[in-house]
Amino acid sequence: MPPKAKAAGKGRAPAKRKLAEEFPPGEVLTDVGKKSWKLGAPIGQGGFGLIYLADENSAKPVGADARYVIKVEPSENGPLFSELKFYMRAAKPDLIQSWMRSHKLKNLGVPRYWGSGLHDKGGKKYRFMVIDRLGSDLQKKFEECGRRFSRKLVLQLGLRLLDILEYIHEHEYVHADIKASNLMLSHSDPNQVYLVDYGLAYRYSPDGVLKEYKEDPKRCHDGTIEFTSIDAHKGVVPCRRGDLEILSYCMVQWLCGRLPWEDKLQDPVYVRDSKIRSQENISEFMTKCFSSQEKPDEIQKFMQEVKALGYHDKPPYEKFRSILQAGLKAIQAKDDGKMEFTTINGAASPAQKAAKRKKVVDEADGTEETDSSPVKKKRVTKKKEVNGVKKSPKKSPKKAAKHKQINGKAKLVEMATQTSPGLAQRSRGRPKKSSA
Ligand SMILES: Nc1ncnc2c1ncn2[C@@H]1O[C@H](COP(=O)(O)OP(=O)(O)OP(=O)(O)O)[C@@H](O)[C@H]1O
């Protein structure tokens, strides 16, 4: 969350949060269904919890080929609690399986929920959740590919995300924080992509009742600033059209490397106004992002379709799919389900050229952005593989102000992004929920 958001919530006490202690490999946790799970090595660290490799409890130690991960947080912390609610309601394997069958899908990129519970250790209580173990995240892939994905890959990612979004929307939730760092490849199949991190997911229609449109200045700019929806910038609770809008910004960034507002992410009002202007004149926005030869017609159509959606509208998913399919056809490609991450050699997009020019000017007059800029906070941590487990270099702890809604109320949450050596961390400036 940008510094401005902190000011927006002044007067609120930061929520106190604790980071879970590290459990030794071999620790056994028993879930509410009385099933026992064994922890392996920790492989990741979120804002407040740790992620461990895990397997069903047996005499064997948990190896690098574990099929599950367990997320553990002190029980009083909120983020895992709200994420767990999503998983319990919408990610049970049977529910996903029957949706896939009825919608004739080969796969659906929502990690399966396998169990959860509370664990006592040393007089303290921890909440845990067992989900599918996944592989590399797409932000890492994006950086490896020189911050450009091929058009075919982007359109296929868009199609996979439409399937995922339709599923979660039909199960009363919106994600509200779609971005490459929240997309992970399957651990076993490099062609399957999963949407993760439901800490910000919002139940937009509990028991089928839609929330009313209401702008709340106290909750403006929730989400990840460069991608968040215009509704979120205005402080309206997220809805289905917002997810489609966020997806459109992601696709543009993946295609051309940079969104036009990326050089001013520390100014959320500027970002909001740029998005509003872009929506008012999509054709001009496209010209800013792409050269005339590279302009993808389907993205413009996709954005026009998003613009036409009302706050309560159910998106016409099939129409969105056919727009992306038409894009594949235009480049003589097919949705063959293969995710090919290749480096794109191409001229910089107009937005990239503008950013480069700005950098030269800023360097010349000494006004280059400082480390407090969200762009820099989102820098990807280079992770090393050690024994098949991701490791990240030690960083000094940074504090980030987070602003988001909890139980329908806006709360400012201050979080310490702590790092411990040996853990992959994905905290890239996304707001966290407090335990309030
Ligand atoms: N299902 C999974 N399988 C394998 N690794 C995972 C999985 N989920 C998360 N990780 C790893 O754990 C790291 C932290 O994930 P986690 O979801 O706890 O944090 P986060 O929610 O992304 O963090 P924050 O919310 O603070 O930004 C990820 O970078 C990834 O390396």
From TrEMBL:
Coiled-coil ranges per UniProt: none
Organism: Sphaeramia orbicularis (orbiculate cardinalfish)
InterPro entries: CK1_Ser-Thr_kinase, Kinase-like_dom_sf, Prot_kinase_dom, Protein_kinase_ATP_BS, Ser/Thr_kinase_AS
One Pfam short name: Pkinase
SMART domains: S_TKc (SM00220)
Disordered as annotated region, ranges: 1-20, 355-436
Database matches in PANTHER family: CASEIN KINASE-RELATED (PTHR11909)
Keywords associated with the record: ATP-binding, Kinase, Nucleotide-binding, Serine/threonine-protein kinase, Transferase
GO molecular function, one term: protein serine/threonine kinase activity
Enzyme class: transferase
Protein family: Belongs to the protein kinase superfamily.
EC number: 2.7.11.1
Domain Protein kinase: start-end pairs: 37-328
Binding-site residues, ATP: 71
Stretches with biased composition (Basic residues): 7-17, 391-406, 427-436
Protein name (database record): non-specific serine/threonine protein kinase
Gene from which the chain derives: vrk1
